[in-house]
Amino acid sequence: MKKNVFLFFLALFAVLVTGCQNNETGYPSSDDPTAVVTTKEIYGAPNRKFEIKAVLNDDLGLKSVRIQIPELSLDKMITFASDPLLESYDLSYFFEVPSDRGTSESFKIKLTITDVSGNAIDEDINLRLDGEFAAPAITMVTPKEGAVILLSTSNEMPVNFVVNDDSGIDYVQVKCEALGIDETIQLAGSPQSYTFNKTYTLPVTAANYVLTITAKDKFAIPNTGSLNINIVATNEYPALYLCDQPKGTNLTTDAVGVPMYFHEKNGQDFEFKYYADKDNKEVYFLGQEADFAPHCFGLNAAGGLVDDLTATPIILPTKGYYNIKVNPNTLAYTVTKYTPSSKVWADVANGLWSDDEALRRPFVSVCGGGIQGADWDTWTAWTQTGLHLANNPNNAYQLVGEYTLTGQLEATFTGQWWNPSWRLIKNGIATMSPGENGNAKYPAAPGVYKVVLDTELERVFITKK
């Protein structure tokens, strides 16, 4: 009898010990966790971040997920709270590939998912460093942004652009809803370059159109690029621009004022004021702001004004200010030199801030955004002396300086408490306050720019140095 009792307690002890061992986590047994990864193959590149995405689930509760790439020294443990238990987790983890790795290398990403019951599973993801992430590059030949199509001359719209992509081009789409254009060109053989050239016919009524060009590449994870081109179809020119740059110059590199917007318009009679900074200055008139094509006005062999890309420039014989009138319809123009009579803002580089107006001397600096060192406080404009403009020794009506632009530009050129001040509005126009309100925003690539405020022309020119 004693032997039987001993065996009973021995068996009970074994059961208890076994039970404690099976439940050492303190949680009852449960099914294995699950992991559903977004993709089994991730593309990365040296010095670039990639994302690991997965949905983790467990019927009782998740404990942790471990992310490992031993060759890249990645060993990340993410531990989950246990009160309350977490049954589902959307994993999104970013990791930057070291810059010294090669584009031909590949690795295994190991995910280890453990639940609170001690169950663990592994999930492997392939990582390749030969990823291609750039969208197809679309280069417009014609029309350029803001192009003017003069319907009285022709209602045809040539569309010509080039698409390039390292991994090959899948398709190109040309679309303009207002014109009923929706063409998709599916390309065979994954070409790395494709040229589109087709002419569309426009209605004879004036209107504005948006042409959308889209291209998708054939990379494993496709990249798509898109470009919108605004087009003005009109029976007369809404604007003319004076350009003093050689033909072929990229007119979108500078931030403000190149080419220069007209001053007055009466019907199709356009009037400009312009300063020639040297003898024999060469100028053209353009029907659009961003390019010499399609409308470039210059001189023919007989000295008459023509709208022709082969035209030669108009020559302003001597340095100084000019009044120029031009009609793009009648092709008549006049050039008259004049002497300005507006106020000269002299000695601004030696300005003085003073609450006593009698002691104050004017300075001209800048307030605005997208300019290194500037904000909208005129005290900052005073204290940041690198923002101060100086008199141009060669032209009493120009204030000059250099600014470092950091992005989208918005500016008012100002003295103490906005006196004097010139607000930079659209088209490079700088009206002296009080004047037209509404500072314009100008896209600008970061970099150092030369700044010219011409107080006679009421124009600002901000050009890439």
From TrEMBL:
Taxonomic source organism = Flavobacterium pectinovorum
What are the record keywords, sorted? Signal
Protein's name in the database: Uncharacterized protein
Q: Which superkingdom does the taxonomy of this entry point to?
A: Bacteria
The leader peptide range reads 1-22
Does Signal show up as a keyword for this record? yes
Q: What lineage, starting at the top, does this entry show?
A: Bacteria, Pseudomonadati, Bacteroidota, Flavobacteriia, Flavobacteriales
